[in-house]
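Dear all,

This email documents one entry for the complex benchmark we are building for the journal club exercise. For each entry we list the sequence lines for every component of the assembly. Then comes the predicted three-dimensional structure of the complex as a token string, followed by one or two observations. Please use this as the template for your own entries, and keep the labels exactly as they appear.
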Amino acid sequence: MSEEAIPHLIIRKKSGWQALPIRELWEFRDLLNTLATRDVKLRYRQTAIGVLWVVLQPLIGAGLFTFIFGSVAKLSTGSDKVPYFAFSFAGLMVWNVFAQILQKASDSMVGNAHLVSKIYFPRMILPLSTIYGVLLDFAVASTLMIALMVIYGIPPHVGLLFLPVALFMAILMALGIGLWAASLNVTFRDVKYVIPVFINFLMWATPVAYAVSALPPAAQAVVNFNPMAGVVESFRWAALGTPVQNWGSVVYSAVASILLFIFGAMMFQRTERRFADVI
Amino acid sequence: MSDIALSVRGLTKEYKILHNAEKHNRVTDAVASSVKGLFKKTEVETFKALDDVSFDVKKGEVLGVIGRNGAGKSTLLKILSRITEPSSGEIHLYGRVGSLLEVGTGFHPELTGRENIFLNGAILGMRKREIERQFDAIVDFAEVEKFLDTPVKRYSSGMYVRLAFAVAAHLNPEILIVDEVLAVGDAQFQKKCLGKMQDVSREGGRTVLVVSHNPVMIQALCTQCLLLKQGTLEGVFSPHQAMQEYASKAVSIDFNTKSHTDKPTIIAIDYASEGRAHVAISGSDLTLQVTYNLPKPILLASIEIRVLRDDATIVTLLNSEIAGNLFSLEAGTHRFNCTLPKLALTPGEYTLDVLLFEGQDGYSKKSISTNESALLLTVTSGDFFKTGKLASSKYSGSFFQDQIWETTNIKPSVIRNIATKLETM
């Protein structure tokens, strides 16, 4: 090598808008894995029934919805073959993926402040690492779903192939909002209190416990404005074959999820360099 | 092959300090003040934590970074380890960097020792394969084999620190950045860590950058020493030179004199023995001299000087009030002399914290000026006992004690007496 050896790395002030530091994330993939497994390992440590909570949580949720909307309000699932319990369980499955990633990602920077201020790594690792645990819960819920389909005699159909697409949309959307919220949370801790309220509000504005078709037409337009509506409806269609009221809303969801993700990632990267100074 | 490991050019880091504006940690505050801000301009003062710093480090070198609090040491390390980015300037790194700003970053109390090794390793930038390869060495070094599957929350603090350092010590980057992490753990383990770091630089030909207040460590470990002062580079010296420079520069600190003009400031501090400045000899009289600039008069003033050993224990405390002196001072410049007859400190390096108090013990006494590590005191060996024998640096202990020795011949009957007395007790 000559005197002008090529530096391994140059540190200088960064500028510009880069959404995804893909090369860096790949370099730190082991850290991503380790942090994700840490969260999974820690979650149910020192709980009496441990992993059973993963099974119980969605069952209890779906049970409540079935009682209130199915038995008391007697809403229709849009399909005669699909009982309310399976209907709301499927809705909750995809909703939980969205809600939990959003919740955990938005808290990931502040929750790991000791790491952020002491060590370098692409900060996006932290929100990204939350996906693993949530998907693990999803996998457990999926086996329950299969059991429910067998019990109720709901045959799988070709739409099942669409299921990963709907799931992916939910993840992208949650990450998009979550990344943005995480970077805001560094400066404004209010975010921590806003997010649970936002999630709760959004859940009722999303057809999780009800079908869009069960709403009056005026309300349908409002609900379809929410990009999560198309995600939940298409997910449920893929799993159970319940009709999607408006396929336009699904296309809208797909576009919105991609745009939200790019927006969130850019906002995150834009403010990333300040984190250690502010957190 | 180029022998430069890293080169720093014109490195500057600015922080903005807002005046007339609180930091907004609430959205409502921010919104409210941005509305107000339309009418009122907030004053923004920029504070330069680092100002145009340039230096090169050769491969295989161990570079010490010293300087007082606020000199920019930590900022430099944070930029080098990419935790925060510079405002301007560049650093070229020729090799993989590992940084260790804290022992046990990311350790989780609920996880077992084994799990924490992998977690901490990954956080420090080690690949999983690397950790697996070094796993046994790490466990050996930390001496925690029996407790590998116990959650670290049940570890003793010593074990915890040992394990944490062990992981870090097996990080094998080409450039290692270390911040005073050796200030933890017991003395024996500290030595082990020091040894490990020496091995790293000597055998591995790796470059080490270390920030420390510990003169012993700096002198034992470093080949070159960087002296920072208020964000600017004073120069690159040999470790010995640097420590002297560091000590003699004393405090010409003007702790942001502009913004805190109402606070007393030290404008000079020094020590002398046998008529020579910067000299302290065990057994000789030592005079400490502190010059304060007081913007306001103080009715009841007292000075306290804490003498600290390099492991941060206070060896002795000099307090004018306890010694019977409360001063009444007018505004202006005042010089205080504190004479220590027959210095009892053993040879070595000490740092002095200097504090100025207003009020009387028990009657609203409060500190009005604090200067930590205001002065580095190097005590050399002297003839404390006036026996013509120098107590060498091997002499262990913190201070000399005058001692009177004698012996008497005890008759056998007396011994028997003592024995029977003991039995009847």
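Observations: Chain B touches chain A through 49 residues (CB under 8 Å). The CA atoms of residues 187 and 405 of chain B lie 32 Å apart.
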